[in-house]
Q: What sequence folds into this?
């Protein structure tokens, strides 16, 4: 019976272990933390956005780096199969806005527990607090691992599923990249992805804690549009975060390293500028004797009101019936294009995932086996694969973990 070693007890590692054990393999999972699924526990704000319910073809559109490489993975273990897999293990699921799939209970711990119980049922041995220092190879083949304690463990195949370097507190410290390099693999440039962004303007701090729903955002580099999306975002003491911002960071991050970009927020995307002007006019007519600052209550959340009034350039004490057409149109444009200067990305400690990783050119897309070292497999975030928010990154972990487990011999 082949002995398979899985290095890393996150989403991809646990899926690989389950899949290999279901094929009757002797599986040992090595995890350096004191428990499994530490990062999985905090995904989706602790609710665990398992996957996305989109058609399989649409999943590729959500992948930012190397979508074509995932063809075999996504079709070998589809999002429907992922949902079915967890339902079969007793984790009931539900679909929310944007096709996001969550456990019905809203607890990521249920997902981890289901995987742990299935591994136990299948006889997977789990060794916690066990740090792998090196992948052992001989004559171009993986032969096992050496632990930090110096102990050697022999194996017929090794699956590396160590994650990236985002959220280092969960144990993601980039070990897999080192293993890959030591085995002759190229590791592409790494950077934080799905990460909040910093802005220059003073008013970001004033807006801290304000969440905006149903807004449109556009990010531009001069006149060139780099990204556009509709959804929700949040202001922080340093800048902006939330789903649309995190997804944008994966697309514009590289450019943002070179120079600042402009974030345009459309606060009323359902209305054209003309329709919004009529709406503002109605507000003004209903409040024609009031001061400007007291006549715009219904247009903004309370926290945004003083900032918008200041940026409008209209004196706050000015009577509404004295506001000129030019002033009003400038105010309407401000609502449709509330702009901020993006100056940079936050660090790995706040990034959901890592962009970059083991070059997929050196991995067989149909098996996840290294093209350089026989019996060495890679799965999950350690690979140069990343996607926008919405459950797609976990789908990558499940699918690549499944393929590695299904082929390791």
A:
């Amino acid at each position: 019976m082949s002995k398979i070693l899985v290095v890393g007890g996150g989403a991809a590692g646990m899926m690989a272990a389950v899949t290999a054990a279901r094929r009757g393999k002797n599986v040992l999972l090595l995890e350096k933390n004191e428990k499994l699924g530490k990062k999985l526990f905090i995904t989706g704000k602790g609710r665990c956005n398992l996957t996305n319910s989109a058609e399989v073809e649409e999943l590729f559109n959500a992948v930012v780096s190397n979508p074509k490489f995932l063809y075999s993975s996504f079709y070998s273990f589809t999002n429907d199969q992922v949902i079915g897999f967890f339902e079969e293990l007793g984790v009931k699921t539900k679909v929310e806005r944007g096709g996001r799939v969550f456990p019905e209970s809203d607890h990521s711990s249920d997902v981890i527990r289901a995987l742990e119980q299935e591994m136990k049922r299948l006889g997977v041995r789990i060794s916690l607090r066990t740090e792998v220092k090196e992948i052992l190879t001989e004559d171009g083949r993986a032969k096992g691992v050496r632990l930090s304690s110096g102990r050697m463990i022999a194996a017929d195949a090794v699956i590396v599923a160590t994650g990236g370097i985002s959220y280092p507190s969960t144990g993601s410290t980039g070990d897999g990249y080192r293993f890959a390099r030591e085995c002759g693999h190229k590791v592409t440039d790494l950077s934080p992805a799905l990460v909040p962004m910093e802005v220059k303007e003073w008013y970001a701090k004033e807006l801290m804690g304000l969440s905006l729903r149903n807004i449109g955002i556009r990010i531009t580099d001069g006149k060139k549009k780099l990204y556009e999306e509709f959804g929700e975002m949040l202001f922080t003491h340093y800048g902006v975060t939330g789903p649309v911002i995190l997804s944008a960071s994966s697309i514009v991050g590289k450019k943002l390293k070179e120079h600042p970009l402009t974030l345009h927020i459309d606060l009323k995307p359902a209305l054209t500028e003309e329709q919004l002007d009529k709406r503002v006019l109605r507000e003004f007519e209903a409040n024609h004797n009031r001061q400007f600052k007291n006549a715009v209550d219904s247009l903004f959340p309370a926290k945004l009101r003083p900032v918008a009034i200041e940026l409008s350039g209209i004196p706050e004490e000015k009577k509404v019936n004295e506001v000129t057409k030019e002033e009003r149109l400038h105010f309407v444009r401000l609502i449709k294009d509330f702009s901020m200067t993006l100056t940079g990305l936050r660090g790995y400690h706040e990034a959901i995932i890592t962009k970059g990783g083991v070059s997929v050119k050196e991995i067989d897309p149909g098996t996840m086996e290294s093209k350089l070292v026989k019996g060495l497999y890679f799965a999950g975030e350690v690979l140069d694969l990343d996607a926008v928010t919405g459950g797609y990154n976990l789908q990558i972990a499940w699918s690549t973990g499944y393929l590695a487990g299904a082929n390791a011999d």
